[in-house]
């Protein structure tokens, strides 16, 4: 598989056979199944799929934030080679916010509405370095706000979250995530609720920060247009599994999986604003009623009898893999 092409020490994060299940009256059902992923320092990777594809559960699993009845049941989560499934709860808490951080779609999942921004940011630093001088910590907070494009950062440190616009609150959340120079940031749909202008600014800032600091970034989204602007590689998820992975341009120009092809065809055409939008027929199946074999086969325009068999993620080239019994011809272009 492509995720094994490089030695472990070269990765900021590596997932090996990750499975996350939710326990119920009829037993455990898998929301994420056998996910393999690798990302190098400074690299930006897209994790793409519709709602219910398992991408957010994957992000929460990495962070150790899956609540009961959910649990990570199998696999390795390697942060700089350290398996997070084997560390103590105390060690995991110390890594969160320090060596790895998560940015949510709603910044108020990060921000406390009754505390000033400086209080929250300084606490994010001192929780991992209690000996740091408060003035030094406050200066770092001010610089972090300035780095994400918040005007008058010295003054805005003393504001409360409700005194910021939605876009500015998201910038504060990004600044908090970057405070301790983490090795990994997971961003879960962080710009979905923002207007296009603010979205573009935040994307540009994240690219700059990752390049300057060598931070690995996993950008979770349903929006391939954002992925096209931001990432270098992409993992496409459907119904809890990775169905395709590869370099961004290769995947967009020449998708191998019919689901990836459908996502690309769903992107509105800039040169034909009045055209009818393409929609993939059907819906993502619920996790407790997954079809046998290829999970996409009930929606697939190319389905054949052998699609009812279990299908593994198969490497098709040095940099690409696909989970499909009949990959789209590699010369076929998306239209």
UniProtKB/TrEMBL annotation:
Main location as per UniProt: membrane
GO cellular component: plasma membrane
GO biological process: peptide transport; transmembrane transport
CDD domains in alphabetical order: ABC_NikE_OppD_transporters
Pfam families: ABC_tran (PF00005), oligo_HPY (PF08352)
Source organism superkingdom: Bacteria
Compartments where found: Cell inner membrane
GO molecular-function terms, A-Z: ATP binding; ATP hydrolysis activity
Keyword Chloroplast annotated: no
Residue stretches making up the ABC transporter domain: 15-264
Sorted UniProt keywords: ATP-binding, Cell membrane, Membrane, Nucleotide-binding, Transport
Keyword Cell membrane: yes
Membrane topology per record: Peripheral membrane protein
NCBIfam families: oligo_HPY
Family: Belongs to the ABC transporter superfamily.
Record-linked PANTHER family: DIPEPTIDE TRANSPORT ATP-BINDING PROTEIN DPPD (PTHR43297:SF2), OLIGOPEPTIDE TRANSPORT ATP-BINDING PROTEIN APPD (PTHR43297)
Designated name of the protein: Peptide/nickel transport system ATP-binding protein
Classification of source organism: Bacteria, Pseudomonadati, Pseudomonadota, Alphaproteobacteria, Hyphomicrobiales
């Amino acid at each position: 598989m492509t995720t094994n092409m490089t030695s472990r020490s070269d990765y900021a994060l590596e997932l090996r056979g990750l499975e996350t299940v939710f326990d119920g009256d009829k037993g455990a059902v898998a929301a994420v199944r056998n996910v393999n992923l690798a990302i190098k320092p400074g690299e930006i990777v897209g994790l793409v799929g519709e709602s219910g594809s398992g991408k957010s559960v994957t992000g929460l699993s990495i962070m150790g934030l899956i609540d009961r009845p959910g649990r990570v049941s199998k696999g390795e989560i390697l942060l700089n080679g350290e398996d997070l499934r084997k560390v103590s709860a105390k060690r995991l808490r110390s890594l969160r916010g320090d060596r790895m951080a998560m940015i949510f779609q709603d910044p108020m999942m990060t921000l406390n509405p009754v505390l000033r921004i400086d209080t929250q940011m300084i606490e994010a630093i001192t929780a991992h370095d209690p000996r740091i001088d408060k003035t030094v910590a406050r200066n770092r907070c001010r610089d972090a706000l300035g780095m994400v494009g918040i005007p008058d950062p010295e003054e805005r440190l003393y504001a409360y979250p409700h005194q910021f616009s939605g876009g500015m609150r998201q910038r504060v959340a990004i600044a908090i995530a970057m405070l301790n120079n983490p090795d990994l940031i997971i961003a879960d749909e962080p710009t979905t609720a923002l207007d296009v202008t603010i979205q573009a600014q935040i994307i540009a800032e994240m690219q700059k920060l990752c390049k300057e600091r060598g931070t690995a970034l996993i950008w979770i989204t349903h929006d391939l247009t954002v992925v096209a602007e931001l990432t270098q590689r992409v993992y496409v998820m459907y119904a809890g599994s990775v169905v395709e992975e590869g370099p961004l341009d290769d995947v967009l120009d020449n998708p191998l999986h019919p689901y990836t092809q459908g996502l690309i065809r769903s992107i509105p055409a800039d040169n034909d604003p009045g055209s009818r939008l393409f929609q993939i027929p059907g819906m993502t199946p619920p996790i407790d009623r997954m079809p046998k074999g290829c999970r996409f086969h009930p929606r697939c325009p190319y389905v054949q009898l052998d699609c009812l068999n279990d299908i593994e993620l198969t490497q098709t080239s040095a940099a690409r893999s696909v989970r499909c019994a009949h990959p789209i011809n590699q010369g076929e272009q998306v239209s």
